[in-house]
């Protein structure tokens, strides 16, 4: 057991440690009141700044040829399973593409759908050489589609001034490329107008 003097020293030292910002006179004043509430001052933690993970720039992607399809991979048969996956994706998206489904509802879903794997045909174009090109969409960019044809040729078809047709389960949809100048990620969030001037 501690004596009264030792207890006094112990309490005083404890208070000094617990309340480093309080002066001795204030501590002594608190002790005379016989009731004391100890305060706790936690150490301030220094926040570590998170390093932002930077992706590749467009120039670096071009240099690394990330989006280029190698010539030996440019074969129509390789991408047929992708087309089958796309058809299943569209059927799920449109709840089965039933005969009684409203065409404008399906059209609105197709406008926002991912078209990688879809078979499209250029039906109208200001450039006659594009008309009749049919194939699977391998890549969609803001201004062009990259399409692989049955002849195993990779075609780069601009969206501008071209009309594309897309058929699935008997439902034919037309894509007016001039109104479609968006990246696939941007298109999913865009609100398309149902009415408007349709022209090449």
Question: What report would you give on this structure?
Answer:
The chain folds into two domains: 2-32; 71-189, Ribonuclease P/MRP, subunit p29 (SH3 type barrels, Roll). The chain has six helices and six strands; from the N terminus they run αααααββββββα. It has helices spanning 4-18, 24-32, 58-64, 80-93, 103-112, 184-187, and strands at 119-125, 134-140, 144-149, 154-158, 162-168, 171-176. The chain has a six-stranded antiparallel beta sheet with strand order 4-3-2-1-5-6. Strand 2 (134-140) and strand 3 form a beta hairpin. The model has no long low-confidence stretch (mean pLDDT 81).
Topology diagram in text:
Elements lengths: L3 H15 L5 H9 L25 H7 L15 H14 L9 H10 L6 E7 L8 E7 L3 E6 L4 E5 L3 E7 L2 E6 L7 H4 L13
Antiparallel strand pairs: 1-2, 1-5, 2-3, 3-4, 5-6
């Amino acid at each position: 057991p501690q004596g009264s003097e030792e207890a006094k020293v112990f309490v005083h030292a404890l208070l000094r440690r617990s309340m480093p910002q309080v002066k001795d006179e204030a501590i002594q004043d608190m002790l005379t009141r016989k009731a004391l509430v100890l305060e706790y001052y936690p150490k301030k933690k220094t926040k570590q700044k998170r390093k932002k993970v930077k992706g590749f720039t467009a120039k670096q992607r071009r240099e690394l040829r990330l989006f280029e399809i190698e010539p030996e991979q440019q074969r129509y048969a390789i991408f047929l399973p992708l087309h089958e996956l796309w058809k299943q994706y569209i059927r799920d998206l449109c709840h089965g593409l039933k005969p009684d489904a409203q065409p404008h509802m399906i059209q609105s879903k197709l406008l926002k759908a991912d078209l990688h794997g879809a078979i499209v045909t250029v039906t109208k174009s200001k450039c006659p050489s594009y008309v009749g090109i049919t194939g699977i969409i391998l890549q969609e960019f803001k201004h062009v589609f990259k399409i692989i044809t049955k002849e195993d040729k990779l075609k780069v078809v601009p969206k501008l001034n071209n009309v594309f047709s897309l058929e699935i389960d008997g439902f034919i949809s037309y894509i007016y490329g001039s109104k479609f100048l968006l990246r696939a990620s941007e298109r999913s969030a865009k609100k398309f107008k149902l009415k408007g001037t349709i022209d090449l």
